[in-house]
Design goal:
Elements (H helix, E strand, L loop, with lengths): L1 H32 L2 E5 L9 H9 L2 E6 L11 H11 L2 E4 L2 H8 L5 E3 L21 E6 L8 H14 L3 E6 L2
Parallel strand pairs: 1-2, 2-3, 3-4, 5-6
């Protein structure tokens, strides 16, 4: 779609002209006083790891923290981004063993640091009263909601054809 391509172009220009210069100033400031820097996910945008590389070259210790399988998508070259940043990090903090193994396979020292969860508050639910109900769930950030455009017609059809199917989307 033309509108989607235009939206992506506008987003890219906003990043390139506004966000990236701000991040470069932050890197200069951080590198002037920090001995250790921990970066969660990416500094700029997937596929462009020049800011991480610049920061890495200016600090004594660079730690990268990730809790999503960012390498599993090719959006903006995300897998190449993950591979590059994993290789430059002194330590990778991974949200689970699968993510840690991915990093280790690329030569990184990886430590599993599970995502914190209050198990008292978010423990298993009791069995549902309607055992035939199927819940399709998704949890994520609002930026990724746009990916539902592709599958939403199919999900609507599934919910129409199967009244026992419920779609639950959790985001801010």
């Amino acid at each position: 779609r033309l509108s989607a391509k235009f939206s992506d172009y506008v987003r890219y220009m906003l990043y390139a002209c506004v966000v990236r210069p701000i991040r470069r100033k932050q890197i200069s400031r951080w590198a002037s006083w920090a001995d250790v820097v921990i970066v969660q996910r990416e500094l700029y945008r997937p596929g462009d790891w020049t800011l991480e590389s610049e920061l890495r070259s200016r600090v004594q210790h660079f730690i990268w923290d990730y809790d999503d399988a960012l390498y599993a998508t090719e959006v903006f070259g995300a897998s190449g981004h993950v591979d590059a940043v994993v290789r430059m990090a002194d330590v990778v903090l991974a949200g689970n063993e699968t993510l840690a193994e991915y990093a280790r396979a690329r030569g990184a020292r990886a430590i599993v640091m599970p995502t914190s969860l209050d198990v008292e508050r978010y423990g298993p639910r009791p069995t549902r009263s309607s055992p035939g109900q199927v819940i399709i769930g998704w949890v994520g950030n609002p930026f990724n909601l746009r990916h539902f455009d592709v599958i939403m017609p199919a999900l609507r059809q599934v919910c129409r054809d199967h009244p026992d199917v419920v779609l639950r989307i959790v985001s801010d």
